[in-house]
Amino acid sequence: PNAAVPARLLPVAELHLHIEGTLQPELIFALAERNGITLPYADLDELRQRYEFTDLQSFLDLYYANMAVLQTEEDFAAMTHAYLERAAAAGVRHAEIMLDPQAHLSRGISLETCVNGVASVLATSMEDFGMSTILIAAFLRDLPEESALEVLDALLAMDAPIGAIGLDSAEVGNPPAKFERLYARAREAGLRLTAHAGEEGPASYVVEALDVLGVERIDHGIRCMDDADLVERLVDERIPLTVCPLSNVRLRTVDTLADHPLPAMLAAGLNVSVNSDDPAYFGGYVDDNFAQLEAVFELSEFDKARLAANSIHSSFASEERKAELL
Ligand code: ADE
Ligand code: ZN
After folding, report:
1. How far is CA 66 from the centre of its chain?
2. pTM attached to this predicted model
């Protein structure tokens, strides 16, 4: 009689998520219409045909271009609400959400518009979706550090509700050390620290993010597998790596999901979690990432429970909140 009871989703934390990467094609068209913006695609199908990427930069070009439809606080709020609703259905009980303020400032959108639009929805995420949330201001590593410093100062001056900073965009040629002063200033301001490293860039960028920036967490980090000494250090220090399997396949940093290093990373004892990165662009949310991993690998119940527990332990949530979720 209980055959219809659905499988219970493990509560997980999503730690690596770009809110602008949750803009679904349908919402892109709806916002374009609402704001009188002409898109360079005739319809949804034509837009979807652009979702075939050759590397990180080919994705970033489309990701930044589509942000043109985000004009008002309400637009940022609508995007954020849609993500929370979908993530809650995926079993996400805590989300740490990156926003790229510089990508909006450069289009003439104010810091208040983008930050307040996202933050207004995060403020009631617990009541609305049973999900705790933390906003992470992410800085574009292909811009000068001076720009990042100005934006961080402006965020602090407006008392923006951010809990951490991150570092994203084009990795190769923009090593972590370029942002040493930014991370020092954020640490002084009491913010938590994470950075993308070892996605397309080399294992040495992971080392640099730890040693020069002092980050607590590494976003992606899969290239650490090229350096056995680094793997040993990451295991010893329990450094969290927020891995994004479907993203890595779509951006061609691995050939196929079957070639993904996640099982090897688990076997090595690394503190890895499963995240969606830019789910509207890469074919799935956290639940889709888990489902596709399970279709390709023999993940044991133990492995799945460990991935879920790692995500919660590795979050910037309070110890009380972590205890509730474990
Ligand atoms: N910005 C959005 N998604 C990103 C990714 N996967 N890597 C670097 N920058 C990004
Ligand atoms: Zn990312």
Report:
1. 17
2. 0.97
